[in-house]
């Protein structure tokens, strides 16, 4: 495919041919035996990928924002207090969603590129009684990774529900949902889960489901209401057809295939591959003399990188030139630093060859922009770091 551009943005990403083949297969009825089986298997596969054997999975046509909306609509009642551990743009979005459903929202923030200290979160939790805490495991606007295990311990200690936005992390970063005490993890299909955009995915702990069932007020969103979806998910898992709203048939077939590929690779091997790829990418960025938005390696995601432009390099021009060299990258997203950095997604089916192609294209563009560096320094560092 000589005109193909390698898609290296933080979602959507490149997808496996077997997954794409499902997208191009004839659409069946959502009541067809083959579809019922695929949906049932996908729900079972989700429990394994989310590492939550006792959780309740939901697969709903929509995007990651719908998954966030679904969490907010079903867990928040007017007047509830919610704490947002905020590391960027998607923390702000979660706050707005929770407020829309009547929550009183407090944000714990850090400087851009950092994540709030655990002591700050604990201080907030000790001052007021919160119903839930939300956190973005990897905020796609900053590339900051948060320590979910530590937050899980705090959430248990203070008896609050822990809701994790795993849109840019699930199936790429380590996330032991049950072991770490996470009550709800949500994601979307188009990132490390490896399926084209269009599915909102949630895993809800029994504890969070009990909290939902004890609601005093109706859910203020008809489409997202778990009362509508729970019977559907339970039916398909019991290999029976059911209907509330038409499932995204081809996407569900594709999800089942992708979950199968993820589980065949193995969760630990998959997380390790993402760590290696990330190490390689970040070593190259450093060797080229570029700074990164995350302020320390410990708070940097493994599913993406967020390099800052060197002085004198113009952002839009640079990203266009990388595109001409065959690789699609993303520009900045965080409003406060939008023009200062760019983003590389490296999750899902990504491999070392993709990183080398990306770094090669970045070197070509940097050279064209007049930036001074040793040609090949990024490529050499990427290759050297892969087996460190
Ligand atoms: N949360 C995070 C961390 C994301 O990266 C995104 C998408 N980039 C979303 C939520 C929203 O997902 P969607 O664009 O699929 O609605």
The portion of residues forming beta strands comes to 5-15%
Number of helical stretches of at least 4 residues: 14
- Summarize model confidence as the mean pLDDT: 97
Strand order of the largest sheet: 2-10-9-8-5-3-4
Tell me what you see in this structure.
- 43% of the residues lie in helices and 14% in strands.
- The protein contains 14 helices and 14 strands.
- It starts with 5 loop residues before the first strand and ends with a helix.
- By secondary structure, the chain is α/β, with parallel strands linked by helices.
- It folds into 2 domains: 6-11 and 267-385, Aspartate Aminotransferase, domain 1 (Alpha-Beta Complex), CATH 3.90.1150; 17-265, 3-Layer(aba) Sandwich (Aspartate Aminotransferase, domain 2).
- 4'-deoxy-4'-aminopyridoxal-5'-phosphate binds at residues 11, 63-65, 90, 136, 139-140, 165, 167-168, 188.
Write the layout of secondary structure elements.
Elements: E1 6-7, H1 17-23, H2 33-49, E2 56-61, H3 64-75, E3 81-86, H4 89-100, E4 104-109, H5 118-127, E5 132-136, E6 138-139, E7 144-145, H6 148-158, E8 161-165, H7 177-180, E9 184-188, E10 199-204, H8 206-213, H9 226-237, H10 249-265, H11 267-287, E11 304-305, H12 315-324, E12 327-328, E13 330-331, E14 342-345, H13 352-368, H14 377-385
Parallel strand pairs: 1-12, 3-4, 3-5, 5-8, 8-9
Antiparallel strand pairs: 2-10, 6-7, 9-10, 11-14, 13-14
The chain binds 4'-deoxy-4'-aminopyridoxal-5'-phosphate.
